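Consider the following assembly input.
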Amino acid sequence: MIGLPDSITTCLFDLDGVLTGTAALHKQAWKETFDEFLRARDPDGFAEFTDRDYADHVDGRPRADGVREFLSSRGITLPEGEPDDPVDARTVNGVGNRKNELVLRIIDEQGVSPYPGSVRYLEAARDAGLAIGVVTSSANGAKVLDAADLSRFVRARVDGLVIAERGLRGKPAPDSFLAGAQALGATPAQAAVFEDALAGVAAGKAGGFGYVIGVNRADQADQLRARGADVVVDDLAELLEAGDG
Ligand SMILES: O=P(O)(O)OC[C@H]1O[C@@H](O)[C@H](O)[C@@H](O)[C@@H]1O
């Protein structure tokens, strides 16, 4: 009925790009942040931040990991700095704070929409008696869930704030998904992971989860499969249709 193996009791959903369209807003904020940074650092050698950079180094990872990973791919290492660094500080925290300033502004301007197919899927999962958790690297997870009116479905949330507080390793490490399963009293084998990011699918695979659903929002079905997705869909509603057929 909901397109999952019978052994699954628990659904762990990534947020940005799986339940809501906010992955595009994050990408826009990152592009503005990194292009600004790279241009200021080396105007003549400027090479823009691309969709490929986002998918490979930033998407799905906690904010500071995204800063470090992408800059390291360009041979740049910054000092960590402090959490309250100003947005123009040339530190990991400063660059991350600039991105957060931009993404909050973009979210306020554009609003947050849930994917209709994801809302239908959440309703079906809830009605089928499955436990529902959200596991997101974003420190803005609670705000986005509320803005999309999705908090009512969520029994456990592991977000960027929880990850930082508990010192968990970010995706592609499985820690945040393992914490989500534990919070809902499920073993990894009993839990399904729903992810659009390559790092997130890799985290689901690394954690030995019972079923990993790759959600293809960025024309990268083959890469999602290569990272360990058991199935790839363009929209969660496809799982309901598969179940009906
Ligand atoms: O900067 P935030 O809101 O804490 O989010 C961290 C990351 O959260 C993930 O959900 C997004 O895929 C990333 O793009 C984002 O960078």
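The chain has a mean pLDDT of 97. Ask yourself how this observation constrains the way the partners meet.
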